[in-house]
């Protein structure tokens, strides 16, 4: 049996404040949570978790900490140990040192309520351009922490640590979330879903979604503005015509002015991205095309055009 330095286990100085001890515990508890590690490392992290829990059970309680500070290094000179095992059934989660020192009578250090910001989740949500413009209701799943049902978040089962959560009081589960996405969000926009984050003792965090647009075959995105190609046959470009242009709401007819040259950008106000009433513009960029095949007559006409341009 060796004496344990609980301060060392939590990585805090002996002068640490209650708050520092709590913070250190939280960081270590999250880092060593057995669920976060591959199967073969589980045992190691479960063991570390137990040590960390034990240290926090002592240092996280004023009364226990005072007792430990007084007796800790000198515990062997304390009263002789009784049969500790009988007092903590299944209590192998606690070291002999702990059991001898506290005789199973340790005051439980409850993890205090966590402030919601520590429980928030950040995630990215992919939308199609059409969904971003129109708004959409999206369902997806994500991994989030919830209170362990086996121990109701206390991390304890009787005198030992809860075997389901390893003493952390929380388990990570895949959870279904439905989010109502309002119309007009720009890429990079962040929306908050209140209470959809991780669940901790006495608190629920929020879920923050950052909007990302899936690439679209028809549109190039530039802030709130969009650009889309519009194909025109040479005669349409030369003479002016009405052509079909893609918009986020579907194709519309656009008046191509007479003499539109390749690369000309025709502005369609308010057909871009953004909130209704504040939307950016859509630019239709003229591309000159040719029919798949030219009839002999069409070819003859183009020859005439060629001669005309040399005249
Ligand atoms: Zn549990």
Care to count the β-strands?
15
CATH superfamily of the largest domain: Urease metallochaperone UreE, N-terminal domain
Q: What percent of the residues sit in helical stretches (DSSP H or I)?
A: 25-40%
- What fold name goes in the CATH topology slot of the largest domain? HSP40/DNAj peptide-binding domain
Sheet with most strands:
4 strands, mixed
Helix-strand sequence: HHHHHHEHEEEEEEEEEEHEEEEH
**CATH first level of the largest domain:** Mainly Beta
Instruction: Supply the helix-strand structural class.
Output: alpha+beta
Overall CATH architecture of the largest domain = Sandwich
Strand order in the sheet with the most strands: 10-11-15-14
Rg for CA atoms? 34 Å
Q: Report low-confidence residues grouped into runs of 5 or more.
A: 78-92, 104-111
Number of domains: 3
* Termini gap: 106 Å
Separate helix tally? 9
Oligomer: single chain
Ligands and ions found: zinc ion
Overall 3D shape: rod-shaped
Description of the structure:
This protein has 311 residues and is an alpha+beta fold. The protein folds into 3 domains: 6-102, Helix Hairpins, CATH 1.10.287; 116-213, Urease metallochaperone UreE, N-terminal domain (HSP40/DNAj peptide-binding domain), CATH 2.60.260; 220-310, HSP40/DNAj peptide-binding domain. The chain contains 9 helices and 15 strands. The strands form 6 sheets. Strands 10-11-15-14 form a 4-stranded mixed sheet. The protein is rod-shaped, with a radius of gyration of 34 Å. The N and C termini lie far apart (106 Å). Mean pLDDT is 83; it is low at 78-92 and 104-111. Residues 148, 150-151, 155, 162, 164-165, 169 line the site of zinc ion.
